[in-house]
């Protein structure tokens, strides 16, 4: 079996992870100083959000030079040392590959206009970061396309020379020894060349999973990926299961897995992410079931609740007050026993929460700031916008990693580039030794994936489909079965006793009285099979 099917990935957002030199910005030496922490957690792969030279209009997702390290983050020497440190510890490194667009400060933008997309007249597509997706350029007297910020012009993938420049750059990093790529919005690289207007300015039907995207990815695979033993994951807003089978299916020679957005869009209205709507658990169950069942044997899932663009899951689908620890562990259980490769986002393993800054001035993210400006100008209320930002803003994920209870959560000796979440004295990695810490629970989940075959291999069956509070399922192979019970509510629930012994749970063990009494946000996983590992573990009571 491919190694990445048994791997657990940890995402680092370098700007907010660990600052070694006191400038308030995380850096590579900071990451090096925390490699033992990551090894202790037990993860196999580290994915770094972009660390390339960038003017930081979108925190590194606007790349000025693909072969240079961002000055604030360090040097190429630091990078080589970091890569060695990762490999010495038996871990691997995945780089972020941002090739749908570059920075407008990339030298290509002036030297190779044919690498970008120009029109005499713009269509009505809107940018993901507010306003038109087209910007008039005085020198060229034409408009260029930017699906994201004005400083992120889209690359023209129709240009073969550009494509081969990208492949060359990818090989350069792979030859340095990196172990894979997470590909930013890679399902947007092929645009409908007639550039038709979209309904209400929504261009996505004309560039999500566009006409030549599979051809381009197969070409990339043939020219680059197939020559290396690496892992690839494509970030793909607007890709459904049918698309996913084409991107990740056996024999397709494209990518190993993709990030779907479907489960992340269930708590929003038709107006998009800022239109808040409570999650219906049955919607989440139905959606994850679809991905589990459809991709079984036909592709491979990536499993995530969190990344640098998403609010913190414990605040979103859990309870970040009284039941913070319980619900953080419950959500982890629910996700980690699905089939696929799990991704942990920095701080998730501590149960870090959303933040609610009082002033818009404390926010840093271009998406949030542009949205706020645009909607205020349209007459929307400050309070309503702040409520949406508190729930959904990307800065929820980007406050500094909470290492300990010292000033600035131990992230920096200087002034952090974005304020620290004020709850750091309580929630921080310094508490990880406590027996009921979220960290220890993640450690166990990660270790179990290595020991229990059915977690990787088993099929998926949803239980109690109509239940709005309990997410329960089984995973099964010929000789092993897992049953997972997750209470997504604070209401206690009674459920039938499944086959097997308790493998792991987030509460102290309970006496079996003919039924399982699920406590608030309780997660319980039962294992039935021939493996001693599972049976013994039940007796040890890996609970808490
Ligand atoms: O976060 C989003 C909306 O809330 C998305 O529109 C997000 O921008 C989209 O998922 C693409 O994300 C990726 O590309 C962006 C970058 O800003 C994100 O950080 C990155 O993950 C442009 O490179």
TrEMBL record:
List, for all copies, the residue spans of the domain called Glycosyl hydrolase family 13 catalytic. 11-398
Q: Which reaction does it catalyse?
A: Hydrolysis of (1->6)-alpha-D-glucosidic linkages in some oligosaccharides produced from starch and glycogen by alpha-amylase, and in isomaltose
Q: Name one GO cellular component term.
A: cytoplasm
Q: Which CDD domains match?
A: AmyAc_SI_OligoGlu_DGase
Q: Keywords, A to Z?
A: Cytoplasm, Glycosidase, Hydrolase
Q: Which InterPro entries match?
A: GH, GH13_cat_dom, Glyco_hydro_b, O16G_dom_2
Q: Which SUPFAM superfamilies match?
A: (Trans)glycosidases (SSF51445), Glycosyl hydrolase domain (SSF51011)
One molecular function GO term is: oligo-1,6-glucosidase activity
Q: Which Pfam families match?
A: Alpha-amylase
The record's subcellular location field reads: Cytoplasm
Q: Which GO terms describe its biological process?
A: oligosaccharide catabolic process
> What is the E.C. number?
3.2.1.10
Record-linked PANTHER family: ALPHA-AMYLASE FAMILY MEMBER, OLIGO-1,6-GLUCOSIDASE 1
Q: Which NCBIfam families match?
A: PRK10933.1
> What's the family?
Belongs to the glycosyl hydrolase 13 family.
Q: What is this protein called?
A: oligo-1,6-glucosidase
Q: Species lineage, top-down? A: Bacteria, Bacillati, Bacillota, Bacilli, Bacillales
